[in-house]
Amino acid sequence: MTKKNTHPTLSQVAREAGVGTTTVSRVINGGERVSPETLAHVRRVIESLGYMPNQAARTLKGQRTKTIGLIIPSIADPFFSSCAEAAQAIARNNDSLLIVTTTQNDPRTELDSLKVLIRHRVDGLLIVPANSQSPALRDVLVHAAMPIITIDRPLADTSIASVVVDNYKGAITATKHLIDHGYKRIACLTGESALYTLHERIRGYRKAMETAHLPCILDASVKDYKSAEYAILSLLDGANPPDAIFSTKNSTTIFAFEVLQRFNIRVPDTVALLGFDDFELASTLRPSISVIQQPAEEIGRRSAELLFDLLLTDRKAANATGARTAKRLTLETRLIQRSSCGCTPPAI
């Protein structure tokens, strides 16, 4: 006995609506060359039958899968989760599903995730490269038959477009703000300094300190609370302890704040603190934390919008392997003045 197929078919929709299967296909694909009356009628039939197009069959015919891949370091990081939320909203507006995978900045995990998404034939890809200089990643991406946008970190030596913030300028702004407060020994706490974003922030810190003829005090060992504790206590126990700390990402700022609180080191009286990237509790802590704020939602939104702009053009022209100049959209950061740097935040 043949098992009855409980899923309505395109042919059933056509029979019920009294039109041809070609007309139903046109309705499903946007309604081009279908009269408004017929379009409304067929859509009512589709809804009443509960018909859903067979996406696997559409893929085999070379049609879009209506899926977008997003590869980010972590969904737990507020910056990347905000980017993902914004990108998902744009994907939804374009009748597409966003598939999110995470890498923890591990190049091997990144390549594995990328290959899975390519095998599933996503229409396009948004990716935060674990290593902006990676030849292996570059080789896979430039040969991928889909439009690609990199987020937060550009991919070197390719024509792949990117959406980033001006990390260098933001770090200069942060460091100069501390210098303007009168701090002379400003330590920069960081980790994963090979990452494009952190490299640029360190470069901005160095530029601001050198311009002010002040010594650079860089510790690139911070990766968790214990390493932050060791770094800060070692600096404070030294002959010339810092009077301010510039931390290069939100997790490092949080670790630094926890260490200072645990050891009753007064902020900003003994050591000022200013971090790159805002986080949820930064404004409610005591003292509140001054930060360089990135437009995370705008980064995710603009990245997804650029990707769908490419999808709406000729696919060959949109392919990232095309011989065109790389397009980099650079967004500005913003200094949020709170108490930890010595500022009195404005009354709300």
UniProtKB/TrEMBL annotation:
**InterPro entries the UniProt entry points to:** HTH_LacI, Lambda_DNA-bd_dom_sf, Peripla_BP/Lac1_sug-bd_dom, Peripla_BP_I
Instruction: Please provide the record's keywords in A-Z order.
Output: DNA-binding, Transcription, Transcription regulation
Q: Does the keyword Cell inner membrane apply?
A: no
Identify a single GO molecular function assigned to this protein. DNA binding
Task: Answer whether the UniProt record assigns the keyword Transcription regulation to this protein.
Answer: yes
What's a Pfam family in this record?
A: Peripla_BP_1
Q: Which residues belong to any copy of the HTH lacI-type domain?
A: 8-62
User: Which PROSITE patterns does the record cross-reference, listed alphabetically?
Assistant: HTH_LACI_2 (PS50932)
What protein is this chain from? LacI family DNA-binding transcriptional regulator
Source organism: Acidicapsa dinghuensis
